[in-house]
Amino acid sequence: MAGDKKLSYEAARDELAEVVTALETGGATLEESLAMWERGEALAKICQEWLDGARAKLEAIKPNS
Question: Which residue has the higher pLDDT, 16 or 6?
Answer without folding.
Answer: 16
